[in-house]
Design brief:
The protein is of the alpha+beta class. It has a domain at 44-127 and 168-245: Muramoyl-pentapeptide Carboxypeptidase, domain 2 (2-Layer Sandwich), CATH 3.30.1380.10. It is built from nine helices and 14 strands. A hairpin with a 6-residue loop joins strand 10 (154-156) and strand 11 (163-166).
Length: 307
């Protein structure tokens, strides 16, 4: 009988290679798209800037939000993200009645991939959220579209010359609802440092729990490789537990307060023995109707003998 300890140290190459490839595929999720070679890949597949998606849900018009581009085809995302947006905006409306609908920018194409104007937004995990805004005196207004908020919380509308200010009460509540949503795990909320400072200052003044404020300070970030995001929040969600083993990867840190991702269980001695002693090439040759052809194909794959 084979010694499991020796097998653990160095299993035969064909079985070791197959085992290694299989484990890497299951744990890393680094695949480019679902295909016959990667049938396990589904949902959000790949990283946000190089991936696709399956089983997406469309974000249709709602009472508490509007699509910034009503006829765009890029309003498809992960089911949890779509539901979180619907519920978070509805919660803002219920908590602070009398406001205007939130304008929501691009999510992803139905099957993912590159869309115009974005480096990411390819796997259904990204969405652009424009600001809730009011007049300087506090009357809610419709956002005219990607207006840039300064350090004082105000923005000048180029077309009209009027000033609007960020509705910090509604904006913070939206951030809070998204972070606490049971349907998503917030990975990043890209926005400018000025807007982050305004939101965090308000959250502290409001008496929000220290842990919640810490979470917000962690996920709110001005990106270093693009525009400062002073005209919207770019929300990105982390891979779900199921998607993490079906091809979803990357996009940022998986924060310590999020639910733990599945771990690969330890392989026991009997399974290691079975893997190490089962050479798939033997099965191929035994089942081939023309073993000589199969062996020839295998022999051609070997390095030529010296001589």
């Amino acid at each position: 009988m084979a010694d499991p300890q020796k097998l653990r140290e160095r299993p035969p190459f064909p079985a070791f290679f197959a085992l290694t490839v299989g484990l890497l595929a299951e744990t890393s999720g680094c695949v480019s798209a679902p295909s016959p070679l990667t049938p396990h890949a589904s949902g959000s597949v790949g990283v946000p800037h190089a991936g696709v998606q399956t089983d997406a849900v469309e974000l249709k018009k709602g009472r508490s939000f509007l699509r910034f581009r009503p006829h765009s085809r890029n309003y498809w995302g992960r089911p949890g993200l779509v539901r979180a947006l619907q519920e978070a905006t509805a919660a803002v409306d219920k908590s602070i009645p009398g406001g205007k609908p939130l304008l929501i920018g691009d999510l992803s194409a139905r099957y993912g991939g590159k869309i115009r104007g974005h480096h990411s937004h390819r796997t259904g995990r990204d969405v652009d959220l424009l600001w809730y805004v009011t007049t300087p005196s506090g009357v809610p207004q419709n956002n005219p579209g990607f207006i840039r908020i300064g350090s004082d919380g105000f923005a000048r509308v180029q077309e009209t010359g009027e000033f609007l200010r960020i509705d910090v009460e509604r904006q913070w509540l939206l951030v809070r609802e998204l972070m606490l949503s049971p349907h998503i795990r917030v990975q990043w909320m890209f926005c400018s440092r000025d807007v982050e400072a305004v939101l965090i200052e308000y959250a502290r003044a409001r008496g929000e729990p220290d842990q919640l404020v810490w979470h917000a300070e962690s996920v709110l970030l001005q990106p270093g490789d693009s525009l400062p995001h002073d005209d919207h929040i770019h929300l990105r969600i982390a891979c779900s537990q199921d998607e993490s083993v079906r091809g979803c990867a990357g996009g940022g840190p998986y924060w310590p307060w999020l639910p733990e991702l599945p771990r690969l269980g330890a392989l026991d001695d009997s399974l290691l023995t079975e893997i190490a002693t089962d050479d798939p090439l033997d099965t191929v040759m035994d089942e081939s109707p023309n073993p000589s052809v199969t062996r020839g194909a295998v022999s051609r794959a070997q390095p030529p003998a010296e001589g």
